Amino acid sequence: MIVYGRNPVREALRGPRVVTTIWATAGAAREPWVDQAGVPLVTQTAQEIAVRAGADAHQGICAEVSAYRYATGEDLLSARRGVIVALDQVQDPQNLGSICRSAECAGAAGVVLPERRAVEVTAAVCKASAGAVEHLPVAQVRNLTDFLLAAKDVGFWCYGADGQAELDYLSVDFGGPVVLVMGSEGRGLRPRVAAACDALISLPLRGRIGSLSVGAASAVLLYAACAGRG
Question: Domain of 60?
Fold first, then answer.
């Protein structure tokens, strides 16, 4: 797998994945962390790196890394604490990357994705997350509704984000283990997923725009749910 961009490559070097080769422009290769990585380094032009990375937003560097290793739903539930973000059919790499970045920065326990009809952890997701996926457990589950039911069985409270819900997120007590359930933009939560939640919550909109992006909404709820946790 190829990851590209300075933060994704740097965090891949710091994380558990094996980095086998780095390709960098002459300018990027002069970064101390690149030279001291102990990984074979090949100098190339920006155009050559763009071809290898499959993207122009490479910032002069890309690397070959081992495949991303997903966690399991059981892994995330085993600790029976913290905040987990569960995503229902989120298919945009930028949204997943943004959510993973917010989740890692806020101190969340991990992110859960369905195996089907959802984006996977790709190079574009790594770039959008600024490398956060290297340090944040991301689990794939066969059935998101079953995951939520299992989470409730071990003491988690599941809150689904719904712009039409009457319950304001500011009135929710996020103490204890929590799963925040976020739907895809435009479609929201599927009915069975929404029904598996303990409650549906909304973020008040006081401006003229009718909705927040799923990435922005996730960031607000993550910091609300993670506030005060050690």
Answer: 2-65
Q: How confident is the model at residue 230 (pLDDT cuts 50, 70, 90)?
A: low
Give pLDDT tens digits for 164-218: 899 999 999 999 999 999 998 778 899 999 999 999 999 988 887 877 899 999 9
Say yes or no: 19 and 87 in one domain: no
The neighbouring-strand residues paired with 111 are 85, 138
Please indicate, yes or no, whether residues 82 and 195 belong to a single structural domain of this protein: yes
CB atoms within 10 A of CB 54: 13
134 and 91 in a common domain: yes
8 Å CB contact between 100 and 138: yes
Residue 143: partners with Cβ closer than 8 Å, 6 or more residues away: 114
Q: Determine which of 63-77, 129-143, 209-223 has the lowest per-residue pLDDT on average.
A: 209-223
Structure tokens at 49: 């790196």
- List the one residue out of 62, 26, 57 whose CA is nearest residue 44: 26
Cα–Cα distance between 39 and 4 in angstroms, integer? 15
Last residue of a domain, one of 35, 65, 95: 65
> 110 and 221 in one domain?
yes
Q: Considering Cα of 118, then 217, then 197, then 179, what sign does the dihedral take?
A: positive
Indicate the residue among 33, 65, 97 that finishes a domain. 65
Indicate the pTM of the whole model. Answer: 0.94
**Same-domain check for residues 219 and 105:** yes
Cβ neighbours of 44 (radius 10 Å): 19
Alpha carbon distances (Å) from 188 to 12, 64, 76, 211, 219: 32, 35, 24, 11, 16
- From the CB of residue 195, how many other CB atoms can be counted at a distance below 10 Å? 12
